[in-house]
Specification:
Layout: E1 12-15, E2 22-30, E3 33-40, E4 43-48, H1 51-62, E5 66-67, H2 82-85, H3 107-117, E6 121-123, E7 131-134
Amino acid sequence: MKYTIGTKENPLVLKTPPQSSEFTMHVDQKDGQDILVCTVGKTVLFYQMRCIDDLSEMLKSHGDWMELGSADEQKPAKEGTVEAWGRSEKNPVGGFYGIKKGLRGRFGNYIPPLLEALGLAEVTHDARGNKMRTL
């Protein structure tokens, strides 16, 4: 599906689930494919564009709230979380949705606010332990 996410010149401005930090998201091209570009300060992360539809479908199948469980790539993700699913060999891409080695984690921190902004999911905004569910 096609989404309006922004451009490099005019990115979508989002906040992390606890609403404590801003980051931007836009669509760009890498190797002829559309990708999501997430900019957090000076750090730039890339995610496969298909993660939007794949995560939305997984949440529909899950049918209830799911903990986000954000973690850096080098740290293990808590089982049963959005983060764990975003790097699982059992997801539709068979591993990380993050593209840039060393910066493939944090899926549970940056992709849920995007789905919320697109009207595909609801995200809690507590200081810790945030969750999401499909709309």
